[in-house]
Fold this sequence. Notes:
The structure holds 2 protein chains of 2 kinds. Helix content of chain A is 36%, strand content 31%. Chain A contains 8 helices and 12 strands. In chain A, helix 6 links the parallel strand 9 and strand 10 (200-205). By secondary structure, chain B is mainly beta. Chain B has one domain (9-335). Chain B is 13% helix and 43% strand. Chain B has an 18-stranded mixed sheet that branches. In chain B, helix 2 (337-344) crosses helix 3 and helix 3 (350-368) packs antiparallel against helix 4 (372-387). The chains are: A alpha/beta, B mainly beta. Chains A and B meet through helix 2, strand 7 and helix 3 of A and helix 2 and helix 3 of B.
Amino acid sequence: MATLEIKNLHVTVETDQGTKEILKGVDLTIKSGEIHAVMGPNGSGKSTLAYSIAGHPKYTVTEGEILLDGEDVLEMSVDERARAGLFLAMQYPVEIPGVSVSNFLRTAKTAITGEAPALRTWIKDVREAMDGLKIDSTFSERNVNEGFSGGEKKRHEILQLELLKPRFAILDETDSGLDVDALKIVSEGVNRAHQANDLGILMITHYTRILKYIKPNFVHVFVDGKVAEQGGAELADQLEAEGYDRYVKA
Amino acid sequence: MSDSQSTAQHGLAEHTHGSFVPLQIRSDRPSSKSVSDFEAVSPLQDLWRYLQPEQLNGLDSDVLGEYASEVSFSSTDDVEISWIESTDARVGSIGVPEDRVAAAAYTNASKTLLVEVAENAEVAQPVVVKISANHSTPSALHVFVVAKKFSKATLIVEHSGLGNLAEIIEIDVQDEAKLNIVSVQNWDNGSAHVSAHFSKLARNSYLKHSIASFGGDLVRITPVTTFTGPGAEVEMNGVYFASAGQHLENRPFVDHAAPNCKSRVTYKGALQGNKAHTVWIGDVLIRVVAEGTDTYELNRNLLLTDGARADSVPNLEIETGEIEGAGHASASGRFDDEQLFYLQARGMTVDDARRLVVLGFLVDILQRTGVEDLVESLTKVVEEKLGSY
Lengths: 250, 389
């Protein structure tokens, strides 16, 4: 059982207009096996939360803590966070020209576990994970994210989630830009990773439709840089019916 | 119609061009087989503006030695390789020197290495010519490659050791022939190599021309490709990696002098260390007769450290509007922070992430040669160079 704690997190970003505070005191605790949905209107700071946990250099933490089983995550570099068991499924993953998916996956796996995976089992694991996500086998030889469709990029992120087996995953709008079929396939991948590894999940989303396929234990409504309300799955139904207006106007 | 664009993909900064004005249009450049027709090399001349004459290690002299035992090769049934007199009528039929060093090579090479791919031959195994020296006498070498009608072959020209070499490689690609030629420059420190490549592509022929420059204090290659018949296609690729103090220069030129031909020019380079300098001048000329031309040239440079400098200038001259497409892109810049973040977020240290990005960037071009052994051995060369970074 592991715990990811976010306490009173304040984060700023540099803009043309100067320093801007995006997160204004976020409190959130996720335990192994729990699924938390963070929902909120555009510009509420959802993606900032995701990138701050992963350690993107663009964001500065000015106050608060992130603890992974009591260890200070904010003291860790981006790669140390990944090796400690944190995973961010990106909303807009970048292209890496000349680096094939198979080389990338193997290098990442080696970096995370500290040793190269045994070749035979690894090839089998990759093939099974790709089959599960209905990814064509030729995909391995393509360069990372180069010429991928939106759906392929998201499947590739979830492929990494299944293969790298982190303790906690932050899914940054993994549902955006997917048609219903792709959404189902991607959701099944997330659910597999959840069950197989007792994964704790922080699922950031603008819409409620992914919650049909991935059932959250907790829903947090994010408004203006902090959690405005939290509850169980029923809160999502309420949002579905009423939208965010109530929070934005308040 | 022309669509010229400058992109800034992969986070590389867009280049600015505008201050550079060619002294004359590319097609007007004077040429001669005699070294005495050219003035002494000076940085004031457009052709030599990026380097100092001393860097040529004497290759611009009137009199040069001549490579012979430095060159090793073996003929096969379909590819005959032999030395011929440079007075042979074929020599000089593909290209005439356009600068002093190439003219010095022409004047001083009394023999020419002839590589002949037989008509209709389909040669599966790459043919290798090895040029390996161990002395610094400024010397000349002339190579003439002919891919006869309907032939198909791969030729690798490898340069290594310590040498100062002024070189001409003429490449005659006859009707319907397909030639894949790779020139590798992997010289020791202290070496200077200036090489003029001239290719002529006849009707419906195909040439893949690649250069890979990694070792040598100065390596300057000027590959000129001229279409002489319709329907031909050239793919010109280049990869280079300059470490501290190295000057690696490439000036590809595609002369669209026949209709319905296609050219793709793709050069990528990395630079690391103080006074690592790369120069890329990419010229494309589309003549009045060259209707239906389709051309695109691209240069990207990745600066890994401070103190390195990449010059990159694409030039496009278009004399007819009746073309399929013409464009260019050039960008030089540092690492893309988003690429590094992505890889680090997958557990790789920043050093490993950089290494993977650089390798990927350069190996992409190596892979285009389609010669697996070469991709493997040159990837190791790149890895070794990166190791010192």
